[in-house]
Amino acid sequence: MTRAQKGLILVIPHLAKDSERDHLLVHRTQMLHRILADRGMVQEDNLKRNRTVMKLLHVTFSKSDSIITENSSDKNFVRWKSEQKSEYVDRIHNDPEGILATVMNKLDDLSVNNDATQNDINNIVLDISKNFKNAAAETFGKIKKHKHFYKHENSKPWFNRKCSMSRKKIHKSRERYSFLKNAENRRKMRQASKEHKITLYKSFANYQQKATDELRSISKKDTKALWKILNNLNSSKKKDNNDDISLKALYDHFKILNGNVEPNK
Description:
Blueprint: H1 3-11, H2 18-38, H3 44-49, E1 75-77, H4 85-94, H5 99-113, H6 118-140, E2 142-144, H7 161-179, H8 183-221, H9 223-240, H10 247-259
Antiparallel strand pairs: 1-2
């Protein structure tokens, strides 16, 4: 049994055998108790009552008024597969990157120096979590989302990917504010709306400038191409205009009017 595997027993004792767990947890538990008590993270009277193996730490959860997303990765892990649990545990124990060995070295240093900080404890937890995630990625694989931008037929020609992303940001901020209404989420929602308006304005201005430059360049080189572009713009405007009247309807309308006119006496 390697040193890294012994360290893993301290964190997840249910993955180890009972014979290996019994003679290791006592020493490691006492060491963590001393570190946490010296830093004021756990009260001394709680340590005296919670000396059993199943009560290593006392955790209190508190509700936050704001929602923070620290992981913006576009890769997700595949769902848990029970038939591969043995392979997953084996990968954790193998620890090819030596993460658990690094954790054990950090714990030994903290026990000797007796100067553990909250940041030290957080880094140890993050290292252990990294080992779990790496084992999950190797066992179950990953899903990578491919985000494509599909432009709708009724979208404006200047509405690009940036406009679409800013609009999605507004919808997300509104949903977050409806879920948790506070000053911080309201500020983020207003900020997203302001940024969306600026994005739309810049996109429209860039589109107009690009079209103007293109027309000026073509007018000097190829007049036929210029008239082709103008005709296409004119036909697109007619297509978007719902008030257009067909020639037959216009003819029937004036025919009825002429039929109702009395002749001059």
